[in-house]
């Protein structure tokens, strides 16, 4: 059987189709969350020093340097049924762990630093170069953000969003802990590769890994184009 036939047959499998659909849903939600969080947190971190700024920077950057499985375990303790946040959510009838919200949180946190940092750096540079000029012309902070910063953040923001989604797409550790890897419920595409390898189905693992590889190459090409556009 040719690889293309194997590829197509694998994509038609119910578990694979579910994982693809779930992954697209999670990425769509994560994109919206990253958009607002990237702009908001980037703006706060680019301002002059204020109380708590250092702590916020640590919290935002932590998923980038902390082991994903350890991050997932810490969140499991916090958001689980016996965690103080989890108990509060359960009292309101909300369930985060081993459900879609847990998978979204995992994807969101995995890509968050890669979205915030480019926006933060760009905002700091723009505030220094253009923000002071706008202030001397009597513009307020809201006007500066909307008329000066935001129009010049298209490429840094797009770069951050693509990097964040690329990181979220390949997330395993935090998703495994918070989502539980429940087949037909929380098994994303990356976890489906994990399941295929664990069960010895290397043909399915190869097909899904190839699919992720193609997506990664497309992400790289887009980033190269954005980088070239920014240098012009």
Walk me through what this model shows:
With 232 residues, this protein is mainly alpha-helical. The protein has a single domain, classed as Orthogonal Bundle (MetI-like fold), CATH 1.10.3720.10. 79% of the residues lie in helices and 0% in strands. The longest helix has 37 residues, at 100-136. It is globular, with a radius of gyration of 20 Å.
Write the layout of secondary structure elements.
Elements: H1 3-11, H2 14-46, H3 53-65, H4 68-79, H5 84-91, H6 100-136, H7 141-149, H8 154-169, H9 173-179, H10 189-198, H11 202-231
Helix pairs in contact: 1-11, 2-6, 2-8, 3-6, 4-9, 6-7, 6-8, 6-9, 8-11, 10-11
What descriptive keywords fit this protein?
232 residues; mainly alpha; MetI-like fold; 79% helix
CATH topology: MetI-like fold
Report the mean per-residue pLDDT as an integer. Answer: 88
* Broad structural category: mainly alpha
Distance between the termini: 48 Å
In CATH, what is the homologous superfamily? MetI-like
Q: Any idea what the shape is?
A: globular
Task: Please give the number of β-strands.
Answer: 0
